[in-house]
Amino acid sequence: MIIRPSMKKFFQLHHVLKIPSTGFKWAPKGGLILQSVSQDIYHNLALEDWIHDTVDLENRQVLFLWRNSSTVVIGRHQNPWQECNLKLMRQNGIKLARRRSGGGTVYHDLGNINLTFFTSRKRYERMENLRLVVKALKALRPQLDVQATARCDLLLNGIFKISGTAAKLGRTVAYHHCTLLCNTDKRILSSVLKSPYNGIKSNATPSVPALVKNLLEEDPTLTCEMLLGAIAEEYASHNHADNHIIVINPADETEFPGIGNKARELQAWDWLYGKTPKFSISKCLSIVDEQSCLDIKINMDVKNGKIETCNIDVPQHWLPQAMCDKLKDSLIGSKFCPTETTTVVNALLRTCADYKLYSKWNLLCQKVLTLM
Predict the structure, then answer these.
(1) Cβ-count burial 14-46 (b if 16+ within 10 Å, e if not)
(2) 279-369 domain in CATH 3.30.390.50?
(3) 3-state SS, residue 365
(4) If both were cysteines, with which of 47, 148, 331, 345 could 365 make a disulfide (CB 3.0 to 4.6 Å apart)?
(5) pTM, rounded to two decimals
């Protein structure tokens, strides 16, 4: 068994030992606790899929502990343009991920803990899992006022949300996962979870806004490592399991055959954006050039992440209708994303030899890009 030197003091309080990942294949039946060494959202979500699809959970329960670098994670049936600030995320290198489970949008960073509880379908009980987390927190810091709600969230002091919940129910297996805010950057959280895009109509699942607070704000002595250890210890006690955390690398194909393909699927454009429920966008935008100030109207239908219909209404005295139609026809069938739209627009602009019309066309194209 391997105990990290930096964790020795920690283990005096919480008797949880970490063993190498090779122990996973031969681990005994019953409760099993895994912790990922990866901070990559796609590999960690892929491991959830791998366990769900591969592991026999009839006589085994699994707790998976994981953390990610900065990422916005949306639910399976959500619209990223409605849920987050994609432009700000692109500018700051913050990833977007879409879960296999439903639920609302959350922000992950290294100050947030993710817990996934795997069971057979018949043993699935998310409120039991949340009570386990509350019990672990109370054991660690008895003064904490933490309660589970009917919505299966965890509230601190009856007001602040510190954990959100989602689940995937298969035919014979199920998993419930939740977040736990320890020391998340709330400034970034509030910025990226505020969509600048309006005029969207969709049947996608909307997130429910809530006040949030870090556990560290309530007790500055808490750390993510302490919380992970306390939850692992409580889980082991509850499931009569050994107090061992198996440290695993979810990118390891020898340990988890086929997991690379699962990770690639999760970061593919067709999954991240193409799975967005059909939506429409209707916008009135102002254009100002050297001689004019005018409003334009843009209406689009987007299906499977691609522009299905497009109508651009521009005063004909400013730009000939034929040029608007050419832009519209070029956009239909393309991805509703700035990268592909920029490519389409640049190819279109190269066909225009008239400088004044080119300038107006370019202004119009740049306005279209702001929708994405």
Answers:
(1) bebebbebebbeebeeebbbbbbebbbbbbbbb
(2) yes
(3) helix
(4) 345
(5) 0.91
